[in-house]
């Protein structure tokens, strides 16, 4: 899930949607995405269930990593 919501809100929604499939829900706050290497982001996309506080530019960056 990619959202502009605060981490706490994103966590609650992710839990309700069971995005982690009963495992630990992994959330990444977009403040950690500034100037991140594309390969690192691609690896993160494999582990993170919810990206929170994401700007439109970061959304594009995440989607491109998921597509590659």
Sum up the structure in keywords.
single chain, 68 residues, mainly alpha, two-stranded parallel sheet, 3 helices
Outline the fold blueprint:
Elements: H1 7-16, E1 27-29, H2 38-47, E2 50-52, H3 56-67
Parallel strand pairs: 1-2
Explain how this protein is built.
With 68 residues, the protein is mainly α. It is built from 3 helices and 2 strands. Strands 1-2 form a two-stranded parallel sheet. Helix 2 crosses helix 3. The mean pLDDT is 90.
The helix content, as a percent range, equals 40-55%
Shape: globular
Quantity of strands, as a count = 2
Helix- and strand-based class? Answer: mainly alpha
Provide the β-strand percentage band.
Answer: 5-15%
- Helix and strand element order: HEHEH
Structure in a nutshell:
The chain has 68 residues and is mainly alpha-helical. It has helices at residues 7-16, 38-47, 56-67, and strands spanning 27-29, 50-52.
């Amino acid at each position: 899930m990619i959202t502009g919501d605060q981490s706490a809100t994103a966590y609650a929604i992710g839990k309700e949607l069971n995005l982690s499939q009963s495992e630990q829900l992994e959330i990444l706050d977009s403040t950690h995405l500034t100037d991140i290497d594309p390969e690192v982001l691609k690896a993160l996309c494999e582990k993170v269930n919810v990206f929170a506080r994401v700007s439109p530019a970061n959304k594009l960056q995440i989607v491109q990593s998921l597509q590659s």
